[in-house]
């Protein structure tokens, strides 16, 4: 498998920022997320809310390194950080009392990545 060249400058900056944060903080979480985002777009995680609901505990912080989709229901308040989320997913998360963040926002508030679960 060859190297994938990303043409989106904002995505490239995010990947580099997450890698740098991982080196500075010694956080394997952000390195893992950066490597998953560096993959080909076809190999990105596309996670439905039903899967997040099954795997996460109430009040937990979850990272989806890819796309969060709105299929299924969310019955507990969660903080979900993702690269991109559908409008339906955002609405269902808000209805359940949770919130959707960008990956950069979560990395800024939790640079060590402690207490975060990756789903996808």
Describe the secondary structure blueprint for this structure.
Elements lengths: L8 H17 L2 H11 L6 E4 H7 L5 E9 L9 E7 L1 H9 L3 E4 H7 L6 E3 L2
Parallel strand pairs: 1-2, 2-3, 2-5, 3-4
Structure explained in plain terms:
The protein has 120 residues and is α/β, with parallel strands linked by helices. It has one domain: Ribosomal Protein L15, Chain: K, domain 2. The protein is 42% helix and 22% strand. Helix 3 (49-55) links the parallel strand 1 (45-48) and strand 2 (61-69). Helix 1 packs antiparallel against helix 2 (28-38). The protein starts with 8 loop residues before the first helix and ends with a strand.
Query: Number of helical runs?
Result: 5
> H/E series, N to C?
HHEHEEHEHE
Q: How is the main sheet built?
A: 5 strands, parallel
Q: What shape does the CA trace take?
A: globular
Classify the helix fraction into a percent range. 40-55%
At CATH level 2, the architecture is Ribosomal Protein L15, Chain: K, domain 2
What is the count of distinct domains? 1
Distance between the termini: 21 Å
In terms of DSSP E residues, the strand content is: 15-25%
Uncertain residue ranges: none
The Rg value, from CA coordinates, equals 14 Å
> What is the CATH T-level topology?
Ribosomal Protein L15, Chain: K, domain 2
Tally the beta strands. 5
How does the helix and strand content classify structurally? alpha/beta
CATH class: Alpha Beta
How confident is the prediction overall: mean pLDDT? Answer: 94
